[in-house]
């Protein structure tokens, strides 16, 4: 008859600890059923769930492990596990799993406590907690601080809608972003990321900037605001705004490109994802002349936007072809995924306006970036406290992966 035991080893970490304790268990032909380890500030917490084949060996294993721990200045705790309890644990392996990511410039105990309390109220168990961002110096703080903590939780929420609403309340009250989505086979297997352009990859709305050059800035800004909040049909709003641009020249368009403000973190995101083998696309309700510029600058693979109609290098106030609105963006996302032989679950869509909701809602991971309230409310994930590089943490990348994949580009901790 086998004995099942749970071994917990804690204390100051040093090289060789795992080999030492595993060697003791090996002498008794112990079978390892589960193992987990974490090291925080040079202190280790090692847990081993093990089956001792010969019941008579339990005392010897217990004595040897305790003695070795004493020599090394470690605390060793060994407890027997009820066989029925172990089988119940095994049978629970089919529980739903979800990933909760907390992202901000800093993460406080208040925020962690709030998120953990929501999990408890909805019957979810926190199985593991991982820090995704690098270590932070208190004496020499980084210029662009980032903090991201990832929870892996199991169980079925009592009410997903209520849970999301509570996370949104925490975000609003404490100034941290919280992403909550199902952990499935696509979590680490997404290979296509598409971005909105204006107010996502770049900080401005180009059509508003152009309208300002044409003397119609306030009117264009009001129409854009209404469209992005979902209060006005996008196609109609776009036609009205393009009409305001009549008379602008090619030189005016070129001037906009020279002063184009990239969003913080955009270059880091593009370089990281390209090096990791992702395909990148721009799906924009803006203009092709800006999209082509960004596609080349950032190394994107796809770009779809609207083409301004011009005659003799002068804007006519019309647009060529079909307008890229929200539904068009969703169709384009499906088409690109199909072309790349990917399922829609393997895609990520990032945007800020109501016209981005269709692609955000069908993507495997939809992210609202500095989004309007209507978008933030409906998107499962959001970034509002950091730059666009926050996306990398929502995707589950650790900062060392970001640094290693993007040599020459300063990481958030540098």
Can you give a write-up of this model?
The protein has 414 residues and is an alpha/beta fold. The protein folds into three domains: 3-90, ACT domain (Alpha-Beta Plaits, 2-Layer Sandwich), CATH 3.30.70.260; 95-182, Alpha-Beta Plaits; 192-383, Rossmann fold (3-Layer(aba) Sandwich). The protein has helices at 17-27, 58-72, 83-91, 109-121, 160-174, 206-213, 217-228, 234-243, 250-258, 266-275, 288-298, 326-339, 357-362, 373-378, 390-394, 399-405, and strands spanning 3-12, 31-40, 43-52, 75-80, 97-104, 125-131, 147-154, 177-182, 192-195, 279-287, 302-311, 314-320, 347-351, 365-369, 381-383. The strands form three sheets. A seven-stranded mixed β-sheet has the order 12-11-10-9-13-14-15, sandwiched between helices. Helix 4 (109-121) runs antiparallel to helix 5 (160-174) and helix 7 (217-228) packs antiparallel against helix 8. The model is unreliable at 408-414 (pLDDT under 50).
Q: How can the largest sheet be summarized? A: 7 strands, mixed
Give the helix level as a range of percent: 25-40%
Number of strands: 15
Top-tier CATH class of the largest domain: Alpha Beta
Shape: elongated
Mean pLDDT: 91
CATH level 4 superfamily of the largest domain: HAD superfamily/HAD-like
CATH architecture of the largest domain: 3-Layer(aba) Sandwich
Low-confidence stretches: 408-414
- Radius of gyration, in Å, reads 26 Å
Give a short synopsis of this structure.
By secondary structure, this protein is an alpha/beta fold. The protein has helices at residues 17-27, 58-72, 83-91, 109-121, 160-174, 206-213, 217-228, 234-243, 250-258, 266-275, 288-298, 326-339, 357-362, 373-378, 390-394, 399-405, and strands at residues 3-12, 31-40, 43-52, 75-80, 97-104, 125-131, 147-154, 177-182, 192-195, 279-287, 302-311, 314-320, 347-351, 365-369, 381-383. Helix 7 runs antiparallel to helix 8 (234-243).
């Amino acid at each position: 008859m086998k004995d099942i035991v749970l071994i917990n080893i804690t204390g100051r970490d040093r090289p060789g600890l795992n080999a030492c304790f595993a060697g003791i268990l090996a002498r008794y032909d112990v079978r390892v059923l589960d193992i987990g380890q974490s090291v925080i500030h040079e202190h280790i917490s090692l847990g081993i769930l093990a089956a001792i084949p010969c019941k008579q060996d339990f005392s010897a294993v217990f004595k040897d492990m305790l003695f070795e721990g004493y020599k090394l200045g470690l605390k060793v705790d060994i407890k027997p596990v009820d066989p029925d309890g172990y089988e119940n644990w095994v049978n629970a392996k089919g529980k739903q799993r979800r990933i909760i990511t907390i992202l901000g410039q800093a993460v406080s105990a208040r925020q962690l406590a709030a998120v953990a309390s929501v999990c408890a109220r909805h019957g979810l168990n926190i199985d593991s907690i991982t820090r995704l961002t690098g270590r932070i110096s208190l004496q020499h703080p980084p210029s662009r601080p980032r903090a991201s903590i990832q929870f892996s939780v199991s169980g079925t929420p009592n009410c997903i809608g209520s849970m999301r609403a509570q996370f949104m309340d925490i975000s609003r009250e404490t100034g941290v972003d919280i992403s909550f989505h199902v952990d499935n086979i696509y979590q680490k297997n997404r290979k296509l990321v598409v971005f909105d352009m204006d107010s996502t990859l770049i900080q401005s709305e180009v059509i508003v900037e152009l309208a300002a050059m044409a003397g119609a800035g306030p009117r264009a800004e009001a129409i854009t605001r209404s469209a992005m909040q979902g209060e006005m049909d996008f196609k109609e709003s776009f036609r009205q705004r393009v009409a305001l641009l009549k008379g602008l020249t090619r030189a005016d368009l070129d001037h906009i490109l020279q002063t184009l403000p990239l969003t913080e973190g955009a270059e880091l995101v593009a370089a990281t994802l390209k090096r990791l083998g992702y395909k990148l696309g721009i799906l924009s309700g803006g203009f092709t002349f800006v999209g082509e510029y960004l596609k080349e600058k950032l190394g994107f693979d796809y770009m779809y936007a609207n083409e301004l109609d011009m005659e003799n290098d002068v804007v006519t106030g019309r647009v060529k072809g079909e307008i890229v609105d929200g539904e068009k963006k969703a169709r384009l996302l499906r088409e690109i995924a199909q072309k790349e032989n990917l399922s829609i679950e393997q895609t990520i869509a990032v945007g800020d306006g109501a016209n981005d909701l269709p692609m955000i809602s069908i993507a495997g991971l939809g992210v609202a970036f500095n989004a309007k309230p209507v978008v933030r409310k409906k998107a499962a994930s959001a970034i509002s406290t950091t730059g666009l590089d926050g996306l990398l943490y929502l995707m589950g990348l650790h900062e060392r992966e970001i640094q290693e994949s993007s040599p020459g580009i300063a990481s958030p901790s540098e």
